[in-house]
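Query form — protein Epimerase

QUESTION: What is the three-dimensional structure of this chain?
INPUT:
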Amino acid sequence: MPHLLVIGASQGIGLETAKAALAAGHRVRAFARSAATIALSDPNLERFPGDALSSADVTAALQGVDAVVQALGVPARDLLGPVRLFSDATNVLVPAMEKAGVRRLVAVTGFGAGDSRAAIGPLQRLPFRLVFGRAYDDKDAQEIRIRQSGLDWTLVRPGVLTGGAATGRYQVLDRPSSWKNGLISRADVARFIVGEIAGNAHVGRPVVLISHALPL
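ANSWER: The C-alpha cells for Epimerase are given below.
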C-alpha cells in the first residue's frame, strides 16, 4: 500500500481523503498547520503539523512517502481579496517533490480551472467570476506549474462540493467535450483520489468530477 502525504488534511477534501485512504489500508501523513487537532484515530495515521508555504516543512513531510495529494482551500472571507495560496504552495511543493524523487501527485483544483473554464455555462459565468475569479486565477497558475513539472500528475476538478457520505455514483469526465458543472460530495472526490493513487488511470490528465449536472 502506498504511503500518502495529504496536504491540507485538516478539513474539506483533504480530511475526507485521509479518511478514505485509511479505510483502504494506506498509511497517511496528514499535513496541515492544525494537524494536531485532526479528529481521526488510526494506527496508520501520522499527524504532521506544517505550513504548505514552508520549504523546510514540505521537504520534511516528503521523506518516505510514495505519493502526494494536494487539497488546499481558502476561507470564503478571503475570496474577495488577492489569492496566492494555490500557486505559492505549488511553487514550494513541485521542486521539493522533484528533489526528493517523489513523482506521483494528485492535485485538487476545481471545475473552471485551466482549460475547463471554457465549459462554464452562460448562466454560471458571471456569478462564478464575481465570487471565485481571484481564486481560480491562482488555480490556473497552480495548474500551469504542475503541468510544467516532470511529475506524474493528475488534476482533479470537482464541481460544486456538498457534504454527506460517499455514494460511488459519480462521473469522471476526462474529455474536454464532456466537461460540465455539477454537484459532488467531498467524500466522493476523496474516493476517486484514493482509487486514482492505486490505479494511475489518469496520469498526465485533468478530470472533472460530478454526480449531478447543474443547469447551463
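ADDITIONAL NOTE: Residues 3-213 form a domain with the Rossmann fold fold (CATH 3.40.50.720).
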